[in-house]
Every structure is written in structure tokens, then in C-alpha cells.
Amino acid sequence: MRPAGGKPAPAAGGVAPAGGVAPAGGVAPAGGVAPAGGVAPAGGVAPAGMGDPGPSGRFGRFGGRFVPESLVPACIELEAAFRVAWSDWRFRQRYAELLRTYAGRPTPVTECHRLSEALGVRVLLKREDLTHTGSHKINNVLGQGLLTLEMGKTRVVAETGAGQHGVATATAAALFGLECVVYMGEVDTERQALNVFRMQLLGAEVRPVASGSRTLKDAVNEALRDWVATVENTHYCLGSVMGPHPYPWMVREFQRVVGDEARSQCRELLGGDDPAVVVACVGGGSNAAGTFAGFVDTPARLVGVEAAGGSAIGRGIPGVLHGMHSYLLQDEWGQILEAQSISAGLDYPGIGPEHAHLSDLGRATYYTATDGEVLDALQLLSRTEGIIPALEPAHALAWLVNAARSGDVAAGTTVLLTLSGRGDKDAEQVMRLLG
Q1: Which strands, in side-by-side order, build the sheet including 155-160?
Q2: Is the N end or the C end of the chain the one with fewer CB atoms within 10 Å?
Q3: pLDDT, average across residues 335-356
Q4: CA 164, CA 136: separation in Å to the nearest integer?
Q5: Which CATH class is domain 104-135+256-433?
Q6: Phi-psi region for residue 84, left (φ > 0), alpha (ψ -120 to 50) or beta?
Q7: Which residues are catalytic?
Q8: What is the spatial distance between Cα 46 and Cα 27, in angstroms, rounded to a whole number?
Q9: 72-86 helix and 89-98 helix, angle to the nearest 10 degrees
Q10: Residue 72 pLDDT > 60, yes or no?
């Protein structure tokens, strides 16, 4: 599904940043896409090769840094710290060691023989559900936790929807000795009560958010407000490839390990070939961005799957929210609309700016899955392979089931699907939904 058409939204996308200031990086530079090679020149634009977006933080016409004046220095400090750390072999070595000995990487690629037989396509799963804390989120928070120490800060705040990023952040904070506050919408605290307890057990303070839709969007709002007030000693550990620059780029780089591992593992399994289709679920889009980064320069078809009640690329128009310019669900006046999903991790009314860019280029395509299709797909994987997925990656699986049965994915095609999390956290909710 390509982006919906329609009249562009107002310049602020309906949500003007506090103070109304869009600093450097907020306006798209002239020119097109940076040359192939992955790294944009200073002030340039990140290419489809998913490289460095440069100081502007722009992916084509998307991205940038739309934040209040009080957060501009913090964003600039974070970008500088990340650039230094990411080019330092000692930081990279420590990060890689934590991924190996603490997070449990590399995660395997599992071939699904019975599911493949049922669908008529060859299905491979990248098993992020097998990491410590049960999802890909640990890859990002270990990197940002190390960066927090490098910057000399003692406290982290985070937002969470499904709770997995909150649990991962609380886990990293306990590991590194950092104070941790997690903002979570009241609706999500109710449907993810187990993850709330896990965060509290790990020593984090969970602050329910009662404003707005009481879901992920509102949790991000409160985390940003906290960061504005406490920026001197606090790092905002944002959980997806969204928000102001450098977050979309930085989080993608911390998640790139998913795609890099999967590409190497698939080539070993497939005799040097790449899978024909690579699919992942998309809310903000961090697991998909990390996966796509490993395959963007291959012939593989890249597919992102959003919740049907969200679908920022399918139904959204460009605007600004949470410090970034991207596709957003909004009305004719630019006011942000509520997204709906069976999954607490996908009910976000926007999408990461690099995904918006990949869609514009046609390098990745984005589809949707309904709640009913997701529940059916979750049961299918559980009963054919003994693997219970989280509701988020069950969206990607639901698309694959439909695509295989309709012929959109031809019989015999090899498909890699990123299983971004395990279903423990959703078991009670699914049990209620299935009666």
C-alpha cells in the first residue's frame, strides 16, 4: 500500500513543538538523495542505503529536528556523543560484548517446516523473541544505556506501549545503576499489567498517563515533557526510529544487528542467496528498520506491516509530531487522530521518518493487518511450530498468510520474517479475546 494522497497538512502537522521553534535540521535541504555509499554529505540527505542522514537528520523530505529551544542543546549533545561513541572501537566492542553475553546474541534463524507446508512458501523466522527480556528492544537500550554513561548522566526516562521497551529500559537501568522512570498510557497499563510489574520489580517507576488517548502517543508526550525539565541529568531513552534527530538514525544503528545477523545466517542457510521477501511489523518501526538495513542493498522485497487501525503510510499525510516530520494520522485541520490496534505496541499515529522515505522511494512497501487476521495468524504459528509470537510480529505473519494464499507471494518463495517479540506479555489479553 502506497501513501494516501490528499492535501498536505499545515506546516506544524497540528502539533507545534513547545516554543514553536524548529532548529537547524527542521527544514529540508535543497537537493535530492545522497550518492550511493550510505553516508550523506554535511547537510545532505540519507539515501535508500540507510546510511548517515548528516547533521540535518533528513531522510529525503522526512525527519529533521522539531523541538523546543530548551531541547536543542540536548539533541545536539546526543548526536555528538553518539557520533564519537559509534566511531570508537572500544565503545563498539563493549556494546557487542553486552549483546553477546547479556542479551544472548546472535539470535537464530529458525526454519518453519510445518508452517511452510501450510502456506506453500518457505518461511524463516529471525528469532528476536529469544533475546533477554523477550524482544528486539534490548539491542537499543543497551546501546543507549552505554551512551548515557558516556554522557555522564544518572537518570533515564522512557515511553512504552506494549511494555517491552519499558521492561528493556528498566533492565538496562538496573544493569548500569541508573534511575529509571517509564511513562505508559493508562489503557496500556491495564492490558499489559504483567509488564508493569516486571518494570517495577526491576526498580523502575512506572507513571501512568491519563491524558489524550492514554496510549503510546501520550506516553511519548509525557516523556518529552520530563526530559525538557530534567535534561541536565536525564537521557531520554526513546524506543523506536522516531522522534527528533538523532533518534531515528541512532536507534536504527543499534537495531542494525538484527538485519546484519539475519543476512549472514540466511546466506549460510540458502547457499549464498538472500531471501526473496523480508517482512516485519511496523509501529514506529525499529525492528523493521534494523531488519531492512541488512537487506536494503539486496534484491529482496522489503515489506512493513502496520495495524489496520493505524496505517500512517496508508492513510496518513505529512506533518510534524514528537520532533519529526513524517506521515501522520491527522484530520483536515492537522490535529492528530487516534490509532487503534489490538497490539499496544502498534497503536501509534505515525511512523518513523526513514520508513516514510523508503515508501516514497518505493524501496519498501507497507501493508496492514486487521485484529482478526492477527489473532488467526498468532494461533497458526503457535499450532504449527510451537512458537507463540507477540501480537506485534503476528501482524507481519498475518500479511504473509494472506499474501501466500492470494498469490501475492508466489509458491516456493523464501520469506524471512522478523519475530520481534514473544507472546508471553499478550497471553492474558489473547485469552480474553479468544474467549
Answers
A1: 205-209, 179-185, 155-160, 234-236
A2: C
A3: 90
A4: 9
A5: alpha beta
A6: alpha
A7: 112, 136
A8: 14
A9: 90
A10: yes
Q: Is the dihedral of CA 65, 69, 74, 80 positive or negative?
A: positive
Cα–Cα separations (whole angstroms), residue 118 to 127, 368, 379, 413: 20, 22, 13, 13
Strand ranges for 258-310 from DSSP E = 277-281, 301-307
Q: Are 191 and 156 in contact (CB under 8 A)?
A: no
364: left (phi over 0), alpha (psi -120 to 50) or beta: beta
CA 307 to chain centre: 14
Strands 414-419 and 317-321: unpaired
As a whole number of angstroms, the distance between CA 196 and CA 21 comes to 35
- The yes-or-no verdict on residue 391 having pLDDT over 80 is yes
Tally of CA atoms within 13 A in the half-sphere of 255 that contains its CB: 29
DSSP 8-class letter at 158? E
275 pLDDT above the threshold of 90: yes
- Which cell numbers hold the place of 177? 545503576
Per cent of the chain over pLDDT 70 is: 89
C-alpha 113/C-alpha 122 separation (Å) is: 8
Q: pTM of this prediction? A: 0.89
Single-letter amino acid, residue 172: A
Burial call 90-107: b when 16+ CB within 10 Å, e when fewer: ebeeebeebbeeebebbb
pLDDT of residue 30: 28
Question: Which residues are 185's β-sheet partners?
Answer: 209
**What residue spans define the domains of the chain?**
104-135+256-433
**Residue 362, C-alpha cell as written in the block:** 518505493
User: Residue 106, preceding bond cis, omega within 30 degrees?
Assistant: yes
Whether the CB-CB separation of 141 and 433 falls below 8 Å is answered with no
Whether 418 has a pLDDT exceeding 60, the answer reads yes
Name the pLDDT band for 46 (thresholds 50, 70, 90): low
Please report the DSSP string for 308-356 in residue order. Answer: TTT-HHHH-EEEEETTEEEEE-B-TT-PBPPP--SSTTT--SB--HHHH
Name the pairing type of β-strands 58-59 and 122-127: unpaired
